[in-house]
Amino acid sequence: MTVIPFEKFLEATGARAALDLYREIPFPNYGYERLASLFHQYCLVGGIPEMVERYAATKDISRLSSLLDRHLEQLFSMVVSLGHSRKTRNRLLQIYQDCFSYAAMRICFRGFGDKSFRSREVGNAFRVLQEHRLLRLIYPTTLTILPWEIDYTRFPRLQLPDTGLVTYYTGIREALTGQPDLSAVFNRQISLHIVGQELLSASTDPEHAFHFWVRPKTQSSAEVDFVIGFQGLMIPVEVKSGAPGRLRSLHRFVDEAPHPFAVRLYAGQLMVKEARTVSGKTYYLMSLPYFLAGKIGEHMEGFVRYVRGE
What we know:
The chain has about 300 residues and is α/β, with parallel strands linked by helices. It has one domain. The strands form 2 sheets. A 7-stranded mixed sheet has the order 2-4-5-6-7-9-8, with helices on both faces. Helix 6 packs across helix 7. The chain is globular and about 60 Å long. The termini are far apart.
């Protein structure tokens, strides 16, 4: 499924002034309100070219419903065609339809979607769906250094291609309209999903565009939303509002990492702050508005140079 990123959405909808602001490094904070509003529209419209084209012509999200219904029907028909028996086809369709409610969430194969399917059956279905690029299973790492060492024994996170389809099919589109902070609703599900979508779009290595981090101790609940590679370093990225002192899982990662850099994506303006972990390690936090998820790499370059005094 082809999905265009936020940057291309701005271009396609004729938001030239906003596009210029988006591309400016560092981002000028006076443009925050405008870009935040457009990004919320993007979350609702999605990045499917046909939807973006219709929205660009009408600027009316409500007029996308028939197109979205038709696109979902086509997707479901495609999913059904992947099965080799009626039983397999029904299982694939049920599992795929359930995926929308679990977008950006960690999942367990056994009993997925409150169904009686066995772990092996669900795992096989997910592999088929992933092979046809209908979803991605994102697995965690327990390390804080590159190269990637992924733990496939842990529960994965589910990533679908398009957030617009997720918000529409799950029926939460209207509830999101007018929300000033996407990370403050639905347990951050939509903000996490759209950030994942943007990171995938911006990456030249989609296989390792991002992972997430968990502590090696299985009894620990510490989890960092995303980890990305940058100049040979593994950078932690949290999608969360609030004071830096509340980012406890991020602190755990920073304490174990061989560098002092961290990123927060939130509903707020660009800023860089020196902070300390709970254990006392000094680190540097770059807080970016979450609509800049696709530009993390470019902002990281200036951030690292600034901290190093270059």
